[in-house]
Specification:
By secondary structure, this protein is mainly alpha-helical. Among the domains are: about 130 residues; about 150 residues, no CATH class. About 65% of the residues lie in helices and about 5% in strands. The protein contains 33 helices and 5 strands. Strands 1, 2, 3, 4 and 5 form a 5-stranded mixed β-sheet that branches. Helix 7 runs parallel beside helix 9 and helix 19 crosses helix 21. It is elongated and about 100 Å long. InterPro entries: FAST_2 (IPR013579), FAST_kinase (IPR050870), FAST_Leu-rich (IPR010622), RAP (IPR013584), RESC6_dom (IPR058917).
Length: about 650
């Protein structure tokens, strides 16, 4: 149906007196709108001919035909040709429809911004922007947001001018926008935030100021979710964000799966662990759990893991639905890697889910981007996952090849990229994979120099552990390791990680003290020269008798002193060779609380397994005291028997 706004513009074009006669204009528009709603397209021409001059009728019907023709076009090239032929007839409704058609038919590889016809359309739109009503303006803004999702790099001045004018015009319209239009515009502004040179935050703050005046009137779940998402993306106004949380709680029974997933995602981005809202979301999810779509499931799993919010029933459902969806091929690589990452982050050991994720990668590895792949590798390494034969023989070579290929394709390295690749390589090391090209690349001086401004202490310690593992475990002398300067820098970062005695350690240490006969025979929280700390260190002679460790080993031996020299010795294997010919055995007792294990499992996590391997290769005999064994001991005789078995019957 043609809009009354279109009729007005056509009347103006033909100079009809109704334009200047307000009463007559209103009467004309009212009769036009009410009648046109009742007619099929076949009868429109006859109706128009009866009531309006033939010249006006021809124009109205011609524009109707233009809309119909535009609707039928299905690719950007034909749409741009249509714009070129008919732009002189363009009214606001046709402009909005053109952008909508281009958005839905735009291919990632299609360089739309550089097309002259598109640039002309943008110029025309700037000229007619104020003629758009609010609904048309929101529709146009949504289409432009869709372009940004596919290509955010804008170089043409006319295209950039349109985005700037959209911002300016939107700010003038905010007070008249409905709640629905405000929430939708907030979503659009967040998409625009990726465009350089746009002062997007200013306009978003202006929108937030309007929302603040009527925040309690937002009762629609979609509007609440859109606004919370926008605020969380730019970390804006915690007060309004919390007021919207209360609106979400008040209207939680209206929320559908998509709105729930957006609110969860927003909470995770904002880092706001609102227990009242999360509890309400849990209850609502359990009520509509069978309606959750694959994408909502992935988003909710990711958000719950980010917020460290765990529900057995919900995660059990997510596991079952994910396995079903992987089998039906209804999940994208991003969703699969997000879900597996969520389970790994919660230390939830699900061998069946991890296996399904690995097999999906094997069959669809060409569709995994750098984010998906690095997230998958990190999750598997964290959980110390072992893929069974014969799949494991294919899996790691394909993983490593895909990772190296994706690194080569990166036009520029982002801060996120450096963190991802370091973390993924560290995870491969945990799983005893030592890809020489990849390790040499990330341990090179150039990569370290480029990455240093963006990496945290976490990545610094991972780089050191990659280097140490390569020396101790790989057996490949062709791999380029850290330079002495970088080695010293990263081991110092590793040594800087400090921990306090856990409640389990506070129970175990007094028992050890009594068992060995005083602090003459043990050291507590020992900092080794290789970065690792040891909970308790003992010495045993060849006959398994305790030796006074503080009298035999100088204090400097177990500290971080003279790091560079000790690591140099390590590279030449002097340290490891000499430690195997000593007259005593160094014992490292590691006291392991629940954080070292998978959830509801006795399975050690990856970082703990790697530490055990490295300490063993560095000359310590590692004895682990897990919490689930210690908590079963009821009295001193039982504790003595337990320690005697651990120490002397090894």
């Amino acid at each position: 149906m043609l809009s009354s706004r279109l009729l007005l513009l056509l009347l103006a074009r033909r100079g009809i007196s109704a334009v200047t006669n307000t009463a007559k204009y209103r009467s004309t528009i009212a009769s036009y709108d009410s009648t046109m709603r009742c007619l099929t397209s076949v009868n429109k021409y006859e109706f128009l001919l009866k009531f309006y001059p033939r010249t006006l009728t021809t124009d109205l019907f011609q524009d109707s035909q233009l809309h119909d023709e535009l609707q039928r076009l299905t690719n950007c090239a034909s749409i741009l040709q249509f714009i070129k032929r008919n732009k002189q007839f363009y009214d606001p409704a046709t402009i909005v429809l053109s952008f909508s058609k281009l958005r839905h038919n735009m291919d990632n590889s299609y360089s739309l911004y550089n097309q002259k016809d598109f640039q002309n359309l943008c110029q025309l739109t700037c000229q007619k922007l104020t003629l758009l009503n609010d609904d048309e303006f929101i529709s146009l803004s949504s289409s432009l947001a869709g372009f940004i999702n596919k290509n955010r790099f804008i170089t043409d001045k006319s295209v950039m001018r349109l985005f700037i004018d959209i911002h300016t015009n939107a700010a003038q319209r905010y007070p008249s926008f409905s709640n629905s239009q405000l929430s939708h515009m907030a979503w659009c502004l967040i998409q625009y935030s990726t465009i350089p040179k746009l002062n997007n935050k200013l306009y978003l703050n202006q929108l937030v100021a309007v929302v603040e005046k009527r925040v309690t009137s937002f009762n629609n779940p979609v509007h609440i979710a859109n606004l919370m998402w926008a605020l969380s993306k730019d970390q804006l106004n915690i007060d309004i964000f919390q007021q919207l949380q209360q609106q979400a709680i008040n209207n939680i029974n209206k929320f559908n799966p998509i709105s729930i997933s957006m609110v969860c995602y927003s909470l995770a981005l904002f880092g706001d662990r609102s227990e009242q809202l999360l509890t309400a979301i849990e209850n609502r999810m359990l009520a509509i759990i069978n309606l959750l779509d694959p994408q909502s499931i992935a988003n909710i799993a990711w958000a719950f893991a980010k917020l460290n919010w765990f529900n057995d029933e919900i995660f059990g459902f997510i596991q079952k639905r994910t396995l079903d969806n992987i089998g039906k091929r209804t999940l994208r690589p991003q969703s699969i890697s997000n879900i597996i990452w969520a389970f790994a982050s919660m230390n939830y050991d699900d061998q069946q889910l991890f296996t399904a994720g690995c097999l999906h990668f094997l069959h669809n590895h060409q569709h995994y981007n750098i984010d998906d792949l690095c997230q998958l590798i990190y999750s598997l390494g964290k959980m110390n996952f072992k893929l069974e034969l014969p799949a494991s023989k294919k899996f790691f070579p394909i993983v490593i090849q895909r990772l190296e290929d994706l690194m080569k394709r990166q036009n520029r390295y982002t801060p996120k990229f450096y963190k991802q690749v370091i973390s993924a390589t560290w995870s491969l090391i945990i799983m005893e994979q030592f890809p020489p090209r990849l390790i040499s690349k990330i341990l090179s001086d150039q990569f370290i120099e480029d990455a240093t401004p963006y990496i945290s202490q976490i990545e610094a310690t991972q780089l050191y552990q990659i280097d140490l593992a390569t020396i101790l475990e790989s057996g490949d002398s062709s791999i380029q390791c850290l330079s002495p300067v970088n080695k010293r820098k990263f081991v110092q970062a590793f040594c800087a990680v400090t921990t306090s005695l856990s409640s389990l350690e506070q129970n175990v240490v007094p028992a050890i003290h009594q068992f060995v006969g005083g602090d003459r025979y043990y050291r507590l929280q020992v900092a080794t020269p290789f970065g690792y700390s040891i909970d308790i260190e003992l010495l045993l002679d060849k006959d398994k008798n305790l030796m006074p460790i503080n009298e035999i080993l100088p204090a400097a031996t177990s500290t971080g002193d003279n790091i560079e020299m000790k690591i140099t010795n390590l590279i030449t294997k002097v340290v490891t060779e000499s430690m195997t010919h000593l007259d005593y055995e160094r014992i490292a007792i590691e006291i392991d609380g629940p954080v070292h294990f998978a959830y509801k499992s006795n399975r050690y996590l990856g970082h703990t397994i790697m530490k055990t391997r490295h300490l063993s290769l560095l000359g310590w005999h590692v004895i682990r005291v897990p919490y689930y064994e210690w908590n079963k001991l009821n009295d001193l005789p039982e504790i003595d028997r337990y320690l005697k078995e651990k120490l002397f019957q090894q």
